[in-house]
Write a structure and sequence with these properties.
Length: 448
């Protein structure tokens, strides 16, 4: 089970967070492999992703900013409407965030983002990314870790990073290994998430009269609709609060998706544009129950989690992937710092040293993620009201706020939070964005 004479990382999961981690490890000169269970790295799943300036700064250090900017759309305007399509609010939040951070949030098509992250790896790094690798077993001891796949291949390493999503096999193995060693171990539940909302999501061609770089949200009692519009396509999300939420994962069929779309097809984004109009033009669609929560333990032994494997937020506020990117930054910083202190890429830190580094990573990220978990939950519940108080705040209080008050709120809360974004400590470069709010963690400047 021992790894070769280099410290080697086995990354399970080839999505955006896993590929970001691959880029970071490559830049740090750390050996790695990425194991993706699907047959192809790129699958057009139809979802959108929003990346904020704090995460774009870190991606710029990896040499990705120019390419990522070319495949995305700046997010400029946010409007709210009734479920009949009557507009009642326009937010200044995005403009305030741009002034504060010096850059816009950017809207991506998930499949295109994944394709770009893969394409931008150099040839040596691409050769370490393997598809059709369904993980069936993970073992770990004092000397190293090994990951066995369904096709019989085994990948040995020094550590295993689980970037394999909300239903992570690495998280499952981490729990099993901990309980095997000590049946009374303090572990997270096998199913750690709570569910209150579900949604369908789909992408369709951009409608000419809809403004690129904008979002329209239709809010109502227990249901809401979110529309994101890019330069050449749009995405729609229809959220519904469940009266009797399940406690386990639910798989939905295409028939379920069709029935859900028919149930809410009459809802409107504008007086002339309804959910059914967009759904009829869809490229593809999906349906999921929305997980929420944060693990108590991000690591055990040689196994450590990033992104949705460790925490989940509802998607309304677009903070899911951003937290995955920030996890990658924090974790690779800790790994690189540990290896440097122990002699470089050939070092093989023992379990005690790894535990200290992983615990530092966990503490940093849990403190920051908790804010986004609370913010995302409020955003979802403010859109699909559960109580009369939320209805009052959303429909009457927020629209009546003067622009200066909203600017102060956004500047003090969201912009300040974004200003705390992490960067790779071992990579030198120039700050890509400069706004009114200073970055808590500046990028280390290149020597002149």
């Amino acid at each position: 089970m021992a790894s070769n004479n280099k410290f080697r990382v086995v990354v399970v999961g080839g999505g955006p967070t896993g590929l970001t981690t691959a880029h970071a490890l490559s830049k740090a000169g750390i050996d790695f492999v990425v194991l993706e269970r699907r047959e192809s790295i790129v699958e057009d799943l139809g979802a959108s992703l929003v990346i904020s300036p704090d995460s774009l700064r870190a991606l710029s250090q990896l040499g990705l900013l120019e390419r990522l900017s070319s495949i995305s759309t700046g997010f400029r305007t946010l409007k709210t409407a009734t479920l009949e399509g009557i507009q009642y609010g326009t937010s200044n939040a995005l403009a305030t965030l741009e002034e504060s951070a010096g850059a816009l949030l950017r809207i991506f098509h998930r499949a295109q983002l994944v394709e770009t992250l893969y394409d931008e790896l150099d040839d040596q790094a691409k050769a370490r990314v393997f598809t059709n690798k369904k993980v069936v077993d993970i073992r770990s001891d004092e000397k190293g870790a090994s990951v066995r796949c369904a096709d019989g291949t085994v990948y040995d390493g020094s550590i295993v990073i689980g970037a394999d999503g909300a239903h992570s096999c690495v998280r499952k193995s981490m729990r099993q290994l901990a309980l095997k060693k000590s049946p009374t171990a303090d572990v997270d539940p096998e199913q750690p998430w709570s569910y209150e909302y579900r949604m369908i999501f789909f992408t369709f061609p951009k409608i000419p009269e809809l403004e690129a770089g904008s979002s329209i949200e239709a809010h109502g009692s227990d249901v809401s609709v979110q529309l994101l519009i890019a330069d050449n396509r749009a995405w729609m999300f229809v959220y519904e609060r469940m009266e009797n939420p399940p406690t386990e994962r639910v798989f939905y069929t295409q028939e379920d998706i069709g029935a859900y779309a028919a149930k809410w097809g009459h809802l409107s984004l504008t007086p002339t544009f309804k959910v059914r109009d967009a759904f009829a033009q869809r490229y593809n669609a999906g349906m999921v129950n929305l997980e929420e929560g944060m693990l108590k333990h991000y690591h055990w032994g040689r196994l450590v989690l990033v992104g949705d494997s460790a925490h989940k937020v509802t998607p309304n506020a677009g903070r899911g992937l951003n937290n995955g990117i920030q996890d990658s930054v924090a974790l690779v910083n800790e790994i690189q710092r540990l290896l440097t202190s122990e002699g470089g890429a050939k070092a093989q830190p023992n379990l005690d040293a790894l535990d200290v580094a992983f615990e530092r990573y966990q503490k940093t990220r849990q403190q920051m993620f908790k804010t986004d978990l609370e913010f995302s939950g409020r955003t979802t519940r403010m859109s699909a009201w559960k109580t009369w108080f939320l209805w009052f705040v959303d429909r009457w209080f927020m629209p009546m706020l003067p622009a200066w008050a909203e600017t102060i709120m956004v500047g003090q809360m969201l912009a300040k939070r974004m200003g705390q974004g992490l960067v790779f400590e071992f990579l030198k470069g120039e700050e890509p964005f400069q706004g009114k709010v200073p970055w808590t963690h500046p990028i280390m400047k290149k020597e002149v």
